[in-house]
Amino acid sequence: MAVPLARRTLVHEWRRFLPATISVAFSGVLMIVQGALLLGIVSANALYVTQSGADLWIGFPGTQSADLGRSIDPGIAANLYMDPRIDRVEALLLGAGDWRGARGGGTSVTLVGIDPRPDGVGLSNAMPPQVRVLLQEPGAVLVDETDLDKLATDIGQTAEINGHLVRVAGTTRNLRAMGGVNVVASLATARMLDNAISASDSVTYYLAKVLEPRNISAVQAHLSSISEKTRFEIWTAGELAGLSVRYWLLESGAGIGFVFATVIAMLVGTLITSQTLMAAVAASITQYATLRALGVSFPELRKIVIEQSGWVGAVGLSMGLVCSLLAAVLARLNDIPFELRLSMMLFSGAVVLSVALVAGLLALRRLRHADPAALLR
User: Fold this and answer.
1) Which of 160, 293, 312, 357 lies at a CB distance of 3.0 to 4.6 Å from 372, suitable for a disulfide?
2) What is the residue-level pLDDT of the chain in tens, covering all 377 positions?
């Protein structure tokens, strides 16, 4: 009887529970969107890894994030070429430059030097092969399509980097940096543009593609066993991407500040949900008291409230998830870093639904020792 009664009460008194339902939806959207923005922003520092097709990354020992790589000895490549389980090895360079656009203005940029061959693995997800081969032209560069306005240069126009002329041959996708601008060039062009990396043959990373995916762990273990002598560290793509996200999320000042803001947003949403739902349940105290006067036990009454709170939470979460998906679409259309994960949606849903259930029970607790006759006056 309790469950049908709970649903009928909700349908009949929907106006009373509508504010609580909306607050649940708002709380869910607040948690999910804030968390997705946080992950999207910090994940931008792992773009070099996530936008590449390499299985293993070899870099300087103790590297904290992919975008903070330091130079390593090019002789390390010999260890990679000698392993028959590795299909191909490529170098990746990270440098810096000062950009002067065709229409004036200037900004600091990060130079990313890659192998321009069509089947290269460096940043292979950020550009198709027909765009990648454009880098074989000396002085040709690629920039993210969302950065053209910032760089005051259009495709086909020339600009300057560190006083050297370059030509924007095309654009990449999903390579927008968190703060600056990524400019992709061939290895030779990158060395020409940045004196700091042209002075030696050192590289920032070596990228390795393993023939059989099942051998990735074995190759990593073998290379790690000789890394102490040649001073390098080896990560899988997932490990280096996760390392980069954790560093900017937990160790950088910006990441910690954003985490704090996200926690505050979650607390505010939770507080609004609990207070609104408690008010909705408390407004029905007279009806609950009537049920007690008719002989309904407190455990049965509690089942009714739990059912009502559960339905309010479920409907509110459904509305919140739809709004979050719409927010993800809008973010994608406007090139806003937004990483919506299923785990985040499940966590936010569990938190909001738990708050809804607890809030309903807290609003009902004053009935436990109350005299039904006194409440009916």
Assistant:
1) 293
2) 445 665 666 666 667 778 778 888 888 888 888 888 888 887 888 899 999 999 999 999 989 999 899 999 888 888 899 999 999 999 999 999 999 988 887 889 999 999 999 999 999 999 999 999 999 999 999 999 888 888 999 999 999 999 999 999 999 988 888 767 999 999 999 999 998 887 667 899 999 999 999 999 999 998 888 876 668 899 999 999 999 988 887 777 666 776 777 777 777 767 777 777 777 666 766 777 777 777 777 777 777 777 777 888 888 888 888 998 998 898 888 777 888 888 888 888 888 888 777 777 776 666 665 556 655 55
* Token pair of 165 as six digits: 């002329």
Measured distance CA(188)–CA(140) in Å, rounded: 10
Distance, in Å, from the CA atom of 161 to the CA atom of 176, rounded to the nearest integer, reads: 18
Contact 66, 244 (CB under 8 A): yes
DSSP secondary structure of 315-353: HHHHHHHHHHHHHHHHHHHTT------HHHHHHHHHHHH
Q: Are 206 and 173 in contact (CB under 8 A)?
A: no
CA distance 267 to 131: 47
Counting every residue written for the chain, the total comes to 377
Cα dist from 72 to 33, 125, 230, 233, 262, whole Å: 39, 25, 9, 10, 38
Does pTM top 0.70 for this prediction?
A: yes
Sort 333 into a burial class: Cβ within 10 Å, 0-12 / 13-18 / 19+. exposed
Q: How far apart are CA 367 and CA 373, in angstroms?
A: 11
